[in-house]
Amino acid sequence: MLFAAGLGTRLKPFTDHHPKALAPVLGKTLLERNILYLQQFGIKEVVVNVHHFADQIEQVLMENNGFGSLVHISDERDQVLETGGGLLKAYSFFSDEDFVVMNVDMLTNLDLKKLILAHQSSQALATLAVMQRSSSRQLLFDTAMQLCGWRNNTTGEIKASRPLEHTSDFAFSGIQIINSSFFQQVTHSGKFSIIDAYLKLAETLTIKGFDHSGDLVIDVGKPDSLLLAERLFS
Asked: Is the entire prediction scored with pTM above 0.70?
């Protein structure tokens, strides 16, 4: 699943007239680049949630035949539900297999196969791609890379799922592998962040981190990051 429903306020003025998923990087939109990225690892069926300028995303997908993938639209025109709520709304599109979820505005050269294998070997409920890099918000993992908490480095706010002694800080890369049992385990509803759901579930279940420090990851959330992406992903 590609999360593409957000308002993309950091990408103004582009998002005053377009969805962030259609922001171009060297002639290809973020949407196309991530659909093609998933195809590299044999993933050719994708759910895309839409809200902001949803019709533009639908039109581009139709005109380009899904860029070679079978694309399903999860319609959030009535209300944007954030990442957790958006995933729950798309529940009917998923089978009982593990699935990949990523933010449409993240570009990376992460070897997704390694993330999938790590998830399968740990039998975690979810495995999150993370890196040791500076970020305003960070996830806290113990020595076994079990999720223990979250911290906002700007405000100092901390949310703990488990004891925070001997934890290390990692930045979330916006990519994760989720076991289908997530839909039965999650207790949140309505509009919510998937990170908040993970923090609650981590109290009793295994939510793992996968350290891929050293890979390229760009959060294409503002105009200067678009220019950086053009240099790094040319």
From this structure: yes
